[in-house]
Amino acid sequence: MRNILAEIVENKKLIVEEAKKNLSLDDLKSKINYGHFRMSQAIKKNSWSLIAECKLQSPAKGRLNKTHSVIDLAHIYEDNGATMLSVHTDPHFLGSNDDFKKVRSEIKIPLLRKDFIIDEYQIYESRYLGADAILLIVRILTPETLKKFLYKTWSLGMDALIEVHDQDDMKIALNTPAEFIGINNRNLKTFTTTIENTIELLPYADMNRTLISESGVFTIEDVDKLKNVGCDGILVGEGLVRAEDIAKQTRNFV
Prior knowledge:
Strand order of the largest sheet: 1-4-5-6-7-8-9-10
Number of strands: 10
Number of domains: 1
Mean pLDDT: 93
Low-confidence stretches: none
CATH topology: TIM Barrel
CATH architecture: Alpha-Beta Barrel
Largest sheet: 8 strands, parallel, barrel
Order of helices and strands: HHHEEEHEHEHEHEHEHEHEHH
Number of helices: 12
Structural class: alpha/beta
CATH superfamily: Aldolase class I
């Protein structure tokens, strides 16, 4: 069976090495300004948060939206009350660093850089692009590297959303001081989704952390179900970008 995550990570190694050739780590470090933990500030203001994702494509489903650009989606989400945005920079999702920079230049609310972080270089790169937060996926990092990357992220004034997929991932995440834990409802090998994954994992979570359910949210009923079982927010891509009325769906999920 095709392992999409493994394919993405292997390709990511090549992308990072190419980036280092164009801009060294030392030069990158000299260009960044430190952040102000804007994700944490924004989410603490709300009892419920929507992280709206600017996603045009999925490796499993292909093109999701052909009528809007990333910046179009970003403006719709911001104008309709999203707490913050998630912006892809991985080519498997038609994401790019240029898209991220354009969104950053026009959008005021906090931005999460959605990518597959496997190298410390990408953490500095994220801040250079203007990210307020990054995604750290437990499944593609060792426990030691996860903790190291979390502290490095904090040292640059950014927040980190630690992504888990099962009980083993959750144990590793809870062994860090991470504030934000995202429960991904997507099977990382097949990329199919079900919100039942969040519901099944919540008993193993620390309810004192901020818990975000990611992916597989398509209806108001999904949102209510996740809110009622104790989630603090949702990260939604496909459920918004494929909606008949994206602005209305954003308001509904908010």
